[in-house]
Design a protein that fits this description.
Helix content is about 50%, strand content about 15%. By secondary structure, it is an alpha/beta fold. Helix 1 crosses helix 2 (about 20-25), helix 3 (about 55-70) packs parallel to helix 4 (about 90-105) and helix 4 (about 90-105) crosses helix 5 (about 120-130). The radius of gyration is 15 Å and the shape is globular.
């Protein structure tokens, strides 16, 4: 994302709510989500804790791209159980804008624990159905099963040149 666009996104998030301010202060651990890098699986792990506004969801996805690059990670493990919905505009943005950039950053596989809400399962399922031709993606009823599947998707660690 272009720096000025990210700055605009941050201004929107800051004005939305206290949760947004806390997200900006600590993208890795806040009321909306928890982000981390799993060294064993070489994946970015996201645990959604609650509803994310459009600006928050997009900001978090930008952080995920940064983390994919920073760690040379190629997988995402998502616990979507507490993510109640992804709005249509954000579905479109994830598929058409974010995914090509995430793939360019190395993303090859995604495993998720499905949302506990009907609309969460429906909207996230739409995204997964649309991107399934472009990467390995699978939904599970538990984060443990998702983690085990990602482990089977192991890729070789990057080698140092020379």
């Amino acid at each position: 994302m272009i720096g000025s666009s990210l700055a605009n996104l941050c201004r929107v998030i800051e004005a939305e709510s206290v949760d947004g301010v806390l997200l900006l202060q600590n993208p890795q651990d806040n009321p909306i989500c928890q982000l981390s890098y799993d060294r064993c699986l070489r994946c970015i792990e996201i645990v959604w804790r609650k509803y994310a506004t459009s600006a928050q969801l997009r900001f978090i996805h930008e952080i995920i791209i940064s983390m994919l690059s920073e760690h040379s990670a190629d997988k995402i493990l998502g616990d979507d159980s507490d993510l109640p919905i992804v709005h249509a505009e954000d579905q479109h943005w994830i598929i058409n804008d974010w995914l090509p950039r995430a793939r360019a950053a190395g993303l090859k596989a995604v495993a998720t624990a499905v949302s506990m809400t009907f609309f969460g399962r429906l909207t996230i399922g739409r995204i997964h159905a649309r991107v399934s031709d472009e990467l390995s993606i699978k939904d599970f009823h538990s984060i443990h099963s998702a983690r085990m599947w990602l482990k089977e998707q192991a890729t070789e660690p990057p080698t140092a040149p020379g």
